[in-house]
Amino acid sequence: MSKRTFDQIESSNIKDKVAKLTLEQTPKHAPHNIIKTHALLLARLNGIELPSQLYNLDSEYNTLYKLVKQTVTSGESNSCLLIGNRGTGKTALVRTVLRDLQKLQNEFCIVKLNGLTETNDRLALNEIARQLAIEQDQSDRSFTSFADSFDYLLSLLKSGDKSSLPVVFILDEFDLFAQHPKQALLYNLFDAAQSAQNPMAVIGLTCRLDTLDLLEKRVKSRFSHRQIYLFPSSNFGQFIEVAKGTLLLPSDEEENKAFNDSLEELFQNPIVNGILRRIFDLSKDIRMFHKICFPPVCKLSKTQPFLLAEDFLESSLVQRADSKTELLTGISLLELILIISMKKLLEKDVLSFNFQMVYDEYKDFMNETQVKGMGFGMKLYKRPVALKAFENLQMFELVCPTDVAGKCPKEYRMTKLMLEQAQVTEAVLKYNCPSMVKKWGTGGA
């Protein structure tokens, strides 16, 4: 029996790749502590390395640890469900518990499944069999059919006794497994756990509060009904501690003291506090902060050994950039003018329109600017050219039809703008266009 679990093998391979990549990206002249800082912080942000500690999860940790420990040390089968919003630490909690249990020198298998990738029972069973085969050093075993895979799985799970190697199943996106036909996978897993033959623990992770209601009666009757609820940070102070913990270096090394001291000052900076306050007010999802951290961490070097608030601000603005607004900065001037024409129609409470209505609005604007003598350098594009630009906007899905295309000519087919008026205004301000167009697009004309 292999002493290294599948989770350990996978984690070790990924860590080696990240360390190699980090060494390549780090400036050659950087000191050794900067290289280690790069590797550690990037691994944490990528979810490869666990945080130094779990914040505000002591009770949940103790409950899950005791439950899985009974399976690993005493051979008692268990099942439970972790329920909480995204970003509340469900995966980190499970991984921390498994890591601490591996220190007890008790051997056990870890099988990971995800409802997003194992979309049916066949894929899930093949993945279980594959991971268990790796555990038993039988990686050359092949499964030719669904029945073979299913029989092999059940033989492993139901032919053992309390002295057999424990198996811990981690079912991420648990609610998606409940949508499989007849819920055969969940039924067999819970039934095998309830049979008390081979020691096993089934841990489900989900963000849906109504997950139990999705289970069939026969599945629900075999589930232990243990539920552990995880909640986001209840106040802003706790959220700051969680965010700071992501970037803190181990305090047992003297060379990390200066970095940690600079981190304390960083989190007192109004810029960083403003970024965290916005995330806290919107979603309390710590992963949004992790995304912002990537560019500042990558900029660490010998000449810049500490994180800077200005880098966090720049990264935050990039993360907050609206994708559709950014798309508008690359369109032609004529296409922008047509979008402004649609915005003007929306201001008149015209929610759907065709090309002819948009072109008439554009023509009225051009005539008005010519009368005022302010249209120098601008010309009225002919109807076929404007129609081609309008079709380009449809291709970009910035404009979409509201009804099925029939025999109606394309210039008279009703459409709608897939942008908010504020998005159009923001794009016009960013676009390098004539002042008259900018004034018209922002409501000044």
UniProtKB/TrEMBL annotation:
<dbReference type="Pfam" id="PF14629">
    <property type="entry name" value="ORC4_C"/>
</dbReference>
<dbReference type="InterPro" id="IPR003593">
    <property type="entry name" value="AAA+_ATPase"/>
</dbReference>
<dbReference type="InterPro" id="IPR016527">
    <property type="entry name" value="ORC4"/>
</dbReference>
<dbReference type="GO" id="GO:0005664">
    <property type="term" value="C:nuclear origin of replication recognition complex"/>
</dbReference>
<keyword id="KW-0235">DNA replication</keyword>
<feature type="domain" description="AAA+ ATPase">
    <location>
        <begin position="76"/>
        <end position="233"/>
    </location>
</feature>
<keyword id="KW-0539">Nucleus</keyword>
<protein>
    <recommendedName>
        <fullName>Origin recognition complex subunit 4</fullName>
    </recommendedName>
</protein>
<dbReference type="InterPro" id="IPR041664">
    <property type="entry name" value="AAA_16"/>
</dbReference>
<dbReference type="GO" id="GO:0003688">
    <property type="term" value="F:DNA replication origin binding"/>
</dbReference>
<dbReference type="Pfam" id="PF13191">
    <property type="entry name" value="AAA_16"/>
</dbReference>
<comment type="similarity">
    <text>Belongs to the ORC4 family.</text>
</comment>
<dbReference type="InterPro" id="IPR027417">
    <property type="entry name" value="P-loop_NTPase"/>
</dbReference>
<keyword id="KW-0238">DNA-binding</keyword>
<dbReference type="GO" id="GO:0006270">
    <property type="term" value="P:DNA replication initiation"/>
</dbReference>
<dbReference type="InterPro" id="IPR032705">
    <property type="entry name" value="ORC4_C"/>
</dbReference>
<comment type="function">
    <text>Component of the origin recognition complex (ORC) that binds origins of replication.</text>
</comment>
